Amino acid sequence: MKITGRANISWLLVAAIIVLAIVILMIAVLGYENIGMYILLTAAVLVLTFLLLAIVLKDRKTASELGYDGLTVRGAMLSVKIPYSDITSVEIRDEINFGLRVGGYAGMKRLGGKFRNSEFGVYDLSAIVSVKKYIVVRSNNRRVLVFNLETEAETVSFYERLSKWTGRGPKTTDN
């Protein structure tokens, strides 16, 4: 089973470490006399860091692909690949309780990264909040991926193709 995710990093922690390293470097080079400048430079670095993150994450669309060997989903703070042989079920839903963000991105329009809720536990999410259709993919090691695309129609169409590729969609019986 190979599921990779990049949402485990707390970007706030990364920004704080970078700022701390810059401040320590400035103190080592310039000394303690210019403490006002350190504060000003630290604030400038923080602002630039958050602006850069906002630009990078602003329009990160969910991209999903049915590749030769597996399903790939990329979105804000998420990149997941699940081999078809590891997928145990695929379903489509009209609503999801997103729960709490563990690590990743939670904007007004998009959600992405690691989330936790009572149904799935910790799971991977890449969702557009305004689109009310979600694809839920479960893998053989109990990992769950929830995602949608830019529109409900695109999400349903992708679900139907994924179900055919994996043979793990809803079962029907012929009478």
TrEMBL record:
It comes from the Archaea. Pfam families: bPH_5 (PF10882). The chain crosses the membrane at residues 12-32, 38-57. Keywords: Membrane, Transmembrane, Transmembrane helix. Residues 67-145 form the Bacterial Pleckstrin homology domain. InterPro entries: Bacterial_PH-related. This is Bacterial Pleckstrin homology domain-containing protein. It comes from Candidatus Methanoplasma termitum.
